[in-house]
Description:
Elements: E1 23-25, H1 43-51, E2 53-58, H2 67-74, E3 78-81, H3 97-104, E4 109-110, E5 113-114, H4 121-138, H5 141-151, E6 160-163, H6 175-188, E7 192-195, E8 218-221, H7 227-240
Parallel strand pairs: 1-2, 2-3, 6-7
Antiparallel strand pairs: 4-5, 6-8
Amino acid sequence: MIHPIQFAIPSENIVPSPPTKREWFSKIIPGDGRTYIYKAWQEESYHSQYQQSYFALTRMKAGWDGLRHYEILANGCVPYFVKLEEMPEKVMTWFPKKLLLEAKSMPGVHEGSVDESFFDKDRYADILNQLLNYTRKYLTTEYLARYVIEKMELTSPERILFLSGTHRRARRPDYQRCLLLHGLKTVFGDRVVDYPKSGTSIESKTVGFEYCTEIGSMVVVFPMLSDCRISKSIETISRTGFVGENSTV
């Protein structure tokens, strides 16, 4: 059976309460490189500009799912999701689409601007609180990890092997696998073994600003083994591409 999956955000990156607002819309416009003014060392400023904005534009780019949606929500800002109405029903199935459509339809709210004379700040505050609560409950990497384990019908795995392959393309950062690994490491700790190791940190370094690490795309659960046997078995799979009948995995 195939189950849907989507991106997530580390829970420690979610603001504790709605921030004070100073701007109607964030100045960052997806697809407009001229507005991408923040450097890698300006993470705090990047988050701050979302926190100070009522709304921030986001849209479908390479695909419907995108880390920007979650960054905006985590910073206590409401995503103005362009063409959200056209998103297929089975895409991003537990994203708060209904609440975001409600925010978009508020009187005075337009793409990139707000007419203050029609804008209801109390209604906005209620929607924002609901979105923050929803984000904390359903959009974290921990929730994503538990969701994957549940769908695999595993209750308390002794070990989780996370594989990303050895091809150079598999070693590049990938939001879905990085965020899933972050959640698995957060929930299961040392029971998660990732291979191959990469130089990227598992700490919730925010990139793009939210990537955490460059690790695998497949979860394999197997009986408790010594680290030596685990490594040897992984090397075998890496070389041959399959698990042989004499493999320990």
